[in-house]
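Typical record was shown:
=====
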Amino acid sequence: MARYEQVVVDHHTGERALIKSNDSFTLQEKVNRKIERWNNRAVRSQAKSKKEAAKAYKETKVDEATEKTEEALSQIQELKGILKHTLAVDDKIHWDSLLNKKPFRNFIPPNEPIESEFFKSVPAESFLELLWPPMRKKRIAIIKSCKDKYESSVADYKKRLNSEQEKWKAAKDQYDASQLKKNNEILELKKKFEESDTESIEKYIEMVMDKSLYPDGLEISCDIIYVIDRKTVIVDMDLPNPSVLPRVLEYKYVATKDIFTTKEMKEKDFDGFYEEVIAQISVRTLHEIFEAVYTKVVDFVTFNGWVEGIDPKTGKDFRNCIISVQAERDQFMDLKLDKVEPIQCLKGLKAQIASQFINLAPVKPILKLDRNDKRIIASEEVIDTLDSSQNLALMDWQKFEQLVRDLFAKEFSGDGVEVKVTQASRDAGVDAIVFDPDPIKGGKFVIQAKRYNNVVGVSAVRDLFGTMMNEGAVKGILVTTSTFGKDSIEFVKDKPLTLLSGAELVYLFNKHGYKVNIETQRNPGKRRSMG
């Protein structure tokens, strides 16, 4: 995710473009270049003759190739600067910045009736009234009618004012209560973290990882465990497969064929580029945790980097740990990270690396994250406080995951089946674990919940399958408020995976006596309701 974004509009054509960058200076340069190219294109569009039009078209395409090349090189440079980027920011969580201090909106009273507006129709007093009494009588009647209307309007205004004040106060009370609750939760987390509570330390480090900005297109996720007796943090991080990294160095426009061609990195150069990216992510993660944890609770950080892929020899999925490194705080913090070569730094830390990272060769983790015991927590029974009017598609993601856990606890209850819920985390991979003792149809099931408004892509299904295999489970269940795409449905055909869409989720809730509402919002103008 880029730190800075700006939408620019071509005022000649109405075309819009989203420009992104991790620093404001580069963003402004990109914006200026984009606008300049659009302006040049507009000038060329004024070409009169056929020859001029052909020349203008070619120049526009050459410009487009230049823009693509600049964007490709910029993306590569951002990836090469992954470590440098984090050295320029403070990785600590500043608790005060998380607090919501914004006051509730001020009360704006409705417009009060203006007395003079009601008496505009009253005729002016005239001496003729002395000669013609009915004229005076008529004016007095008009005055009375206007006065009655004004007094009625004032009465209505007071009722409306009172009603709107009551509504505003109720909304303010609700806002203040919600604000106070969330702020207290943050302050409580801070207190527990500073008191060395294990779960709070893990939550804090997860927050640090969540706010760590990587270049667009680089998906980084991790599991965190804190081992209190060792003062050690264990990080299992999913690293990018080589296939997701960019290779293109240059775009060229071939006028004779009216196509773009590309020049890619040489294989050896790309191997070195991938190694550089993986090494930087590894060192960066160690740095972020040591810098962010300001209490004296972390002496060591163990980093395990995992990569998923498909073995070209067998066609089978794999998930290999390709690097494992443990760093001690004082030794690591003494390093000059702005001057080190990341791969040499890892070797100096005696990292476990089988060969070049590009080979994705597995190594044994120095310390392995214990998934079976560490994550298990007690259920909070969110389901029994469910409000049927609430839209599950817009529910807080943690509450939605807990709700799904509660639902499956009821679905699998009885016959000795045990449902264990896991620590809430955006990147945990598993939200609930089911243990069925039946020797034939039983085993270990893993469940994951996705509170989505858009179609769930096949990558999420692949992730669950990889998690299921890693967990040694016999079945995986993916639940969403939305729907699944064609690729997802195709992927699970020959695999022990079950996909539950929003409609099927509603059915399951209804089965257990709970009425729920799911209304996905794929775009502002189109809604899809399930209930």
Remarks:
- The longest strand covers residues 317-328.
- Confidence is low (pLDDT under 50) at residues 373-380, 424-428, 523-529.
- Residues 276 and 341 are 9 Å apart (CA to CA).
- Residues 374-530 form a domain with the Trna Endonuclease; Chain: A, domain 1 fold (CATH 3.40.1350.10).
